[in-house]
Structure formats: C-alpha cells, structure tokens
Amino acid sequence: MGKVQILLRQHVGAPCAPCVEVGADVKKGTLIATPTGLGANIYASVYGKVTEITDDRIIIEAADEQPDEFVPIDVPEDASKLDMVKAAGVVGMGGAGFPTGVKLNINLAETPMGEINPEINPELPKDFSIDCGYILINAAECEPGLEHNTQQIETQTDKVIRGIKYCMEITHAEKTIIAIKKKHHKAIKALQKALEKESAITMHLLPDIYPMGEERAVVRECLGVNLDTTQLPSAARAVVVNVETACRVAEAIDEKRPCISKNMTVRGKLNGGNEAHVFMDVPIGVSVGEMIEKAGGIEEPYGEIIMGGAFTGKSTELDAPITKTTGAILVTVEFPDLHGANVGILVCACGGSEERMREIAKKMNGNVVSMCRCKQAIENKPGAPLKCLRPGNCPGQVKNNLQFKKDKCEYIIIGNCSDCSNTVMASGPKMGLKVFHQTDHVMRTVGHPLYRTLRVSKQVSQDIDF
C-alpha cells in the first residue's frame, strides 16, 4: 500500500485542522483532524506512521500488516445517534460531501413547508403541502457506468434498511421513499423482499436519464415539488440521503465505526476489461494509481483519467488520493482530434464547469471561439456553482445554437443532461453544427449510448412487474 495521503478538506466547509504530529503511530480509526467550522472529523484509514503534514493533507506510511480491527469513535455511553454520526465524520458520499451530522440535525415533524414557487410549479395549488417528513434515499446511481451503490443494495440490503431507519429516527421522519432507476432489477428485487414488512418505506422508480440523482430532482420525482435553486429539500419537509451514506450512518451507530473507507467503481480502458470493477471499503487516501492497478492497469494508449463520474468528475493523476466523496475512477479512450477547428462550448449546471469544458476542448485540439450557458443554468451568487432551474427537464436550446452558428463554430461541445442534450440535437445539426458531448470519450470506453437524442420516456410506470 505504501503512502496514504489524507486530504484535510474532503467535505463541504473549511479544511480540518490536524490533531496529530509527524512521527505519530496511528491505527485505523485514529482521529487525525477535526473541523475548524462546518466540516467533519477525519480519521486514519490505515495502520502506520505519520511522515508528513502539509497545508492540505496528512501523509501516512502504511504498515505492512493491516489488521481488520479499528479504533471505535470516542463518544459517551449515553451519546445520541446523531452525536455518533457527527463523531464518525460521515459526509454525503454520493459526491456532495455535506456533513451528514449537520444534514440530519432537523426535526422534520416540526419543519414547515417552504414557499412553493408558482412559476416552476404551475400545476400545484397555492395551498399545496407535504403530509409529513420524508427521508428520500438517492439510489439512482446517477452517473452512467457506475455500479457500487447498486451492488451495495444487492449485497447489504439489511444495512441499507438499518441506516434508513436511523435517519428516520434522528430526523423524526414518518416515511421514506427509495428513489431507484427501474433498470436495476436485481436491486429492486432485493429491496422488495426487505420491505415486505416495512410499511413506512416505499420505492419510487426513476427513468434512466441523467440527472435523476440530483437532490432537487429526487425531491421532484418523489414528492412532486420543484424547488427553486436556493431551496434545500427541507423546504419540502425532506432530507435526501445517498445509499452509501445511509450505510455509513448504520456503521457509526451499530459498530461505532468511523468513516474511513469508500465504495467505488473503477472502469474504462483497463487490462482487466471495460466492465465495472467495484471495490468496497477502499481506505481513504490510497492513490488513484493503486486502484487502477487493482482493476488490471491501464491499457495504453488512453485519453485521460477522471476522478468521479463522466458528467461531474474532473481529470486527475495517478498519485491523487481517494477521498470520502470519490465515487469512481474512469480511464478513457483517446480524444478525437479536431485539428484546430472553431468550437463552441455549452455549459450546463448538470455537467462540467466552463473550466472543465475548455479543458476537454483543448484535449480535442479545438479552438474555443464561443461559450454559452444553458438557459436554465442559474448562478445564485457570483462565482457559485451553477444550479439548474428544473434538473433533467429542459426547454429548447435554439437561441444558443444560433449564437454558435453566428460565431462561426464548426463543432460544439455540450455538457448537458439527457433532456437538454435532446433539445440541442433538435436544431444544432440542422444548422450544420457537429455535436460532441463532454462524456463521449467515457461512453465510448464503457459501451454506453452517447448522449444525443433522448430515447427514454421521462415518465415511468410505478408498477414493479418483471
């Protein structure tokens, strides 16, 4: 295993402050950094010795022997379940990284409905309200090609349900809805069996389009409410929790286990094949390169390595460390060469940032001459990440395509959701614009259909009948 690098910021909020010194011997579960504000405790994920502390990470030389035992979280005997989750350092492990102890610190039984924006909810009556508090479990496995959440449902169903019940108890939620794509037949069957005697927990089947796992999309699909870009799920009397996060909650409470590992999918142009290689409980801080080697190593030549999903991930290097929010490592085929042709980039809240889109254009040897934003991409404040007004439900993109044509673009690179990509294709090719999606090199690698014309209905029957 060698060197393990544990970043001091792997959650929403400020970086943590180290509470160990260079030379300290650590075990799995040794507390090594604590929050300085909004954040979550960070623990050693391996047995070893601290060899270096920098501004942004703690470096541990892992011991040759790595026992399974871990140091339990240090909480009083009468600690509440919420206190255990906070102490364990659990964060949103679907990628957002918001501290779970903060998210669950709400009484949904007493939380009033937020104001419903009639402009984005024209079908709802003015006095619409949600009947009780809900835990919404994001089991969408939203990014294409990933399988670790689905596998956890199939193999650790009991732990998933325990975690859900703890989240309900902590937040005083009366009901839970598990949002899962209808295509995950095996996982749905496992949940059906587990929920036979669980009247307060139900499933909602999602269509296989991106981004059904976006937090506000989950609220809309399950509860019928479009939240505006500034509202949290609590405005719909709900808390959204990722599948793996729910399991880490169960571990913190049942085992007093600190959050020291991550489930992930490694996939792509690998000697081990391009199918999904799922790894459970990977120690936080191991390198991207080590995980790629576990999956068979890179099949040369290749395009780039992505940490995270095809839509929201970022390019990375072999020595980069795994964090609490790393869901995937993707090795892609080579990029096509546009030979310096004029390119327009369409930036969407559901995909890569402008910086990421420009990086992809550069790797394709394209000359960016125009940049537009999806008409639904909202910037709540200057410099903040873009938010989509209606994630996964997009109006037309004719205006942007006209701008690209005016700016003499030959190609456009888009980073849009399934529906948004569909609206681009309705007019772009007719104007002579050649379309690439930012995920094309990943989709080609894993054998997934390219994001172009939407072929899946946005509506899906709720009946489970296989």
From TrEMBL:
The keyword Chloroplast does not apply. Gene3D superfamilies: NADH-ubiquinone oxidoreductase 51kDa subunit. Residues 85-250 form the NADH-ubiquinone oxidoreductase 51kDa subunit FMN-binding domain. InterPro entries: Ion_transpt_RnfC/RsxC, Nuo51_FMN-bd, Nuo51_FMN-bd_sf, RnfC_N. Residues 3-57 form the RnfC Barrel sandwich hybrid domain. Keywords: 4Fe-4S, Electron transport, Iron, Iron-sulfur, Metal-binding, Repeat, Transport. Pfam families: Complex1_51K (PF01512), RnfC_N (PF13375). This is Proline reductase-associated electron transfer protein PrdC.
